[in-house]
Amino acid sequence: MASINTAVFVPENALVGTVVARHNTSLQPVIYRLLNGNDYERFSIAERQGVVEVANPLDFQIQSTYQLQIRIDNERNLAKNASLWTLTVHVLDVSGYPPYYNKTCETPERSSGLPRLIEFTDLLLNGSSRNGLKISNKTDIVNVKKSTAYFSVTNDICEVNVTFGIKHVQDVAVAHVMSKAGVHNLTLCCVAGDNKVSAILIDRDWVREPDIPFLLPMAFSELVASKGLNAMWVDNERYSYFVLVKLGILKTATPVTIKLVLTKVMASAPYGELNFTGQTTVKLAGCPQGKYGAYCDKNCICKNDARCHGFNGACLCAPGWKGVACDIPTPAVAIDVRPEGNMYITGNVSLQCRPVHINASSMTWWFRASRNNSSKIFIQTSRNFSISPILPETNGVYTCEVTTSDGHTLERNYVLDVMECPPGLHGDRCDRPCDCLHNVGCDRWAGCVCEAGWTGPTCNMSCPAGTFGTNCKQQCRCENGAECNPFNGTCICPHDLTGEYCKGKQRSPFHRTQDTLQYFTILVFILPVVVVACIVMRRKRKFLKEQHQQPVHEELQLVDVNHQQNMADTLVPWERDPQYLTLGNLVGVGTFGHVVEGTLHLPGELPVRVAVKIVDTNAEYVQADFNREMDMLIYLYDRSLHTKEGEKVMHPNIIQLYGVVTLSDPKRIILEFAPHGDLQMYLKRLRDDINAVNWATLFGLAIGVSKALQELERVTIVHRDVAARNVVITDGMVAKLADFGLARDVYTNTVYEHTNHHGRDELLPLKWMALESIRDGIYSCQSDVWSFGVMLWEIASLGEEPRYPGPFRPNCCQMVNMLRQGNRMEKPEQCSIDLYRLMCQCWYDASDHRPTAAQLEERLAELVREVGDCADDCVTVWESTV
């Protein structure tokens, strides 16, 4: 028998039906038969044509080489002229393939409605100008079409961007007005949720100016280079304007309502001043079964009950299957759990061990308790196992070990970490009734969570005279025997008293009329002066704007001259000449603008590697945060007790300030460079190799943050945004607290008002905030401790976004209701009970019951010692569910 040897190379992402090889012969007719080497039926051959094709999806990681044995026979005489064709198929590894299935943005399967992965509903749009231009639109469901919207999804981080091509006459007119007015960045804010959404208006004719690159967020050429638009739009001049909407990270099907507010946008004649408001609801709706993609127009290849990801069609295989399409059998063990819903302490749960593609000879259950780092113990030999009742000591890792008939062993783990009590019960073992009054929540550890104005074990007593607020911890300041509201401390004055604390006597109407006349007289004289000053300032600013060719409108701001002078005096030692700065690569984009790596060359000193935070907007709240961060860092340096080589230095766990640039634009803060980035990104990088995570190192980073909080407590400063994203990691793996833009002085917080100015409170980090901060606007060092507990949750989950029971992105009201009812975040999968208990202590409703920063450092140090002592025996305490 003659033999033929051929080798071919095929990329692993070759589509089913792709021709791999073709055999030509002079013998006619012939029959081709694939004898062996076709593992898992990956290839097929046409019996009479000699064409080898891909029959099922390939996967380089599963098998990279196939040796196909193909017999070629003469159909008229099978015994004559037969030959053997050996076809060696080399599968090539393709970067980014197979697609990654990201569970954090797992999409539902929809059974009805418009086939769209993402829905835009309840659109409201209103616009007006002083010359009478009006725009109004209201739509229940927005039918986003391929001709006008291009979706770009990044499955690795669940990010969704949408580019809208503007072509309708009315939309082009609006875009033209905004473009000429210099409106580039349109920052959107979420009504429900903390996911920051932004939009960029892009003009086809815009070109980035090299001298002022920060004024233009994105040029058209950059949009094309990023492949962020429909390729058909590139050369189509009909599309002159584009809006790139960055929806950020979408993680659930919970709708997110976003709104846009643009006020006092100065456009050229004849429009004048413009005002726009818009609102829409974005929902990750999912595709019908078997479909994926932004328009649900792509077919999934997943088989054997595998789940198809709506973003990229990646398959999540059921136990016992593998491969890009989950069509290759593999031995596995599955554990079926009943019930599937919420479980409570004192309840019960049943586990069933299910071998898949295994000839099992025995099944054995083992248990390793979460508490006390216990060793693995034998439970029983059977398929089924029940836990009744569920108690704190039954939490842990349950392992089903299956022995095959040929002596091999496979196992599967299930982690039981039930932490909640049934409704109406509390206590460590959930054996104490709550009996709470006034429909308040009941915390497992603290019991009834009383509303402000109530106290007692069941919230059955109003606050004692002279006290008010949560747990009646605040002292009333009412005078002259006035009554104090036990809920908010408001003084209820008798008819003859007045003032906030009822200090003054009520005056007669005659005196009030005299005062009014005095105020009116003052206004008559002062108002013209203020108006003239405003006109002069506006004309001066207009002149300066024309000199610098700045198209963006700036609102007139009246500032406290004395405060500015004091601030200027403070900044003198810290002011740096921009010529001493060499800027490098972009590090990131934040609230202020952007951050770049740089080098500071001060005369007579060695160059220093720095991070430069640059402000690229004149928005009032951004300037306020910028100034506040400068103030706080300088204040912390001035109050520091630390020295190095005889010179004062910043606390070692607070980011070092190297200087500021305030006398020229753009404004800049020069900070210590952190080569390891922020803690959040560091944690996310650890997910790639969960077994290599060093928990002692992570606890050490948390200890560094606790030391920074102790320093803030010493100098009476509240940070207000303690989170993994605001902790940077410098050389030597030292954690340093950064981003003091929201910091407040504890004892002078009346300077800063809790308002909704420019939507500012909607930017507050709700999921990191203490109950009293969201509900009452009260911030203290103990509210920072609450946020520290959330940061510990981020560490234990390796950088996941905090998630509470209920809506994934709750608004303020939902958040307050959840926390008042005692709801807290659940324990992350790879988190120990001891660490989770420390988190829960940080989340006590009563702020004075929370641990101090010093106590946090002490407890974390104990956890570091425990992790170090137990070494290998502690591995399962931190393992994920397999």
UniProtKB/TrEMBL annotation:
Its EC number is 2.7.10.1. It is found in: Membrane. PROSITE patterns: CADHERIN_2, EGF_1, EGF_2, IG_LIKE, PROTEIN_KINASE_ATP, PROTEIN_KINASE_DOM, PROTEIN_KINASE_TYR. The lineage of its organism: Eukaryota, Metazoa, Chordata, Cephalochordata, Leptocardii. One of its GO terms (molecular function) is transmembrane receptor protein tyrosine kinase activity. The chain crosses the membrane at residues 517-537. Keywords: ATP-binding, Calcium, Disulfide bond, EGF-like domain, Glycoprotein, Kinase, Membrane, Nucleotide-binding, Phosphoprotein, Receptor, Repeat, Signal, Transferase, Transmembrane, Transmembrane helix, Tyrosine-protein kinase. The keyword Cell cycle does not apply. It comes from Branchiostoma floridae. SUPFAM superfamilies: Cadherin-like, Immunoglobulin, Protein kinase-like (PK-like). One of its GO terms (cellular component) is membrane. Pfam families: Cadherin, PK_Tyr_Ser-Thr. Residues 331-411 form the Ig-like domain. It is a single-pass type I membrane protein. Residues 581-864 form the Protein kinase domain. It catalyses: L-tyrosyl-[protein] + ATP = O-phospho-L-tyrosyl-[protein] + ADP + H(+). This is receptor protein-tyrosine kinase. Residues 2-101 form the Cadherin domain. CDD domains: Cadherin_repeat, Ig, PTKc. InterPro entries: Cadherin-like_dom, Cadherin-like_sf, EGF, Ig-like_dom, Ig-like_dom_sf, Ig-like_fold, Kinase-like_dom_sf, Prot_kinase_dom. ATP binds at residue 613. GO terms for biological process: homophilic cell adhesion via plasma membrane adhesion molecules.
